[in-house]
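Most newcomers find our protein records easier to grasp once they have seen one. To make this concrete, we reproduce a full record directly below:

===
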Amino acid sequence: MSDKPSNFLATIIEEDLASGKHDQIVTRFPPEPNGYLHIGHAKSICVNFGLAQQFGGECNLRFDDTNPEKEEQEYIDSIKADINWLGFHWKGREKYTSDYFDQLYDWAVHLINNGDAYVCHLNADEAREYRGTLTEPGKNSPYRDRSVEENLDLFTRMKNGEFAEGECVLRAKIDMASPNMNLRDPIIYRIRKKEHHQTGDKWCIYPSYDFAHGQSDALEGITHSICTLEFEDHRPLYDWFIDKLPVPAKPRQYEFARLNVNYTVTSKRKLKRLVDEGIVDGWDDPRMPTISGMRRRGITPRALRNFADMVGTSRAGGVVDLGMLEFAIREDLNENAPRAMAVLDPLKVVFTNLPDDHREVFTAPGHPNRDDLGERELPFTKEIYIDRSDFNEDNTLSRKKFKRLVLGEWVRLRNAYIIHADEVIKDDNGEIVEIRAKVIEGTVGADAPEGVRPRGVIHWVSASEGLPAEVRLYDRLFNHETPDRGGDDFLRHINPESLKVLTGCIVEPSLADAAPESSFQFEREGYFVVDRHETKAGQLVLNKTIGLKEVWARKV
């Protein structure tokens, strides 16, 4: 346990442990298995699992699987993988709200027997009318005063499948005049004649989230039920059920501000639309704010956890600038990503003063500040590739403005020779296809001889020993700060330049055995990751994680 609470939730937990209210804390992370987890869930995972770790407690994973219409095993598997990838582990086996369906049904019967629940036959439009508004109280349902016996019979028939979907529901009997809309006789059970991924066709009625959540917490002995602020108005209902039922424990709900990030959409419905309409290439497309998408983009678990710490946990809402996440990503990769060289737009350089079979090998550190990352070998041959943008024919360009190679001048190759550009070869369209140059002997690891003034340092890769690669340049998916606000269709704000695919790229041969999800810093290009799905033997696919510095502000 830390010496100092890290946020208001930690302060509450510390006080509860010190007072003896709890001997051990138990938290839970309760996702709905109806989509992939996104960056907001990552924050919640860090809060719930992190607090349990901080105070020597435990955290459950419980799937809130009360709506079989939208739930799939694929989502369950992805959620478990995401949590483990972030570095967290839940107590025991994963749990499901469906584990408690029998008990929840019995508790619904308990409410009916005590006169606290009734079967209501209002249709959706009628129920909406009877519910009232934020400024006007609701009206009691005409079915509210049914007898216990009639309600028990109707609820049994609901369970047995005698009614159609939407024909009736079970509602709690609380207060239709309450200023809190959640207490206006909320729905406890709905009819859904759908097979469930855990319970099969056993049930055709399913509990609501508000009814199932607190009781599941109580059954699991959750001490601190932590959720986001939009559930604050649900807390009185949470407590009402706990007080009305013979639950084995009395959990308490606490709320913190959800994570909102600009230039980002986190609505599962909208994310699913991006997938279903083919705007992105699946839930794990590297442009998606899903955890699996960020993973494929090359964002590390450490960077996401650091970002969650930077954002902090409080009750104050607001929107976090995406630049804060990008800062956390760069900080992490700058410290941990090995260095390499890659040429994304190759231009051949032929050294006329070297024999055709020339080959020598230079070494370079894997990282300038990390001896543990070792060294890498850089084969140097008669022909190399440099980036097309690193050469210009115009030798009148200012050295201050263009610090790369120009015709008739010198430049140093990173970890290798100083070279001199002598001649350019062009095709029939006037485009440069080759530079002819000379190496300056004795300049490897040495100062330039007198009279030789290299403009700068550029990266390169051997033409014969470099590895071909496909490189995918990813940028922000949306070009509007708040793409899903203001009534506009959020798809209007899709960034048309969010993906650019480069073929014919060349990377240094040290990447030959790079494992999927390995990250590298390519000099002057940014941070890249080996694609975890599409890289195969002889087919290297690299995704751009982020640039070396923020350039977005100059592009919009």
Remarks:
- The chain has three domains: 9-256, 268-339+469-554, 345-459.
- DSSP finds twelve helices and 27 strands in the chain.
- The longest strand covers residues 418-426.
